[in-house]
Fold:
Amino acid sequence: MLFLRISEEEEIYEDKSGNRKVSRFAKKQLLIHGVIKSLRLGFNVILVNPKGITNSEDYDNVMREKGFDRHTASAYIIALRGLEVIKNNG
Structure:
């Protein structure tokens, strides 16, 4: 099971109600719940930092070569990062 590390920095929107909704969203609790549920089901849990994916050369190459849209390309690269973690930690 692969989870993204959600940054602690909150985005600031021009809309005040949008800021309130973002600040009240329980990101950390959602992540903890997903990790605990995955461990109970017997999955290996890996946390991957998604920072810098869309600005990398790999992102453009994956989009062109595989024919993925930008969201699928991001998910693909994140999965590859997770596989690297598994390979390196053995």
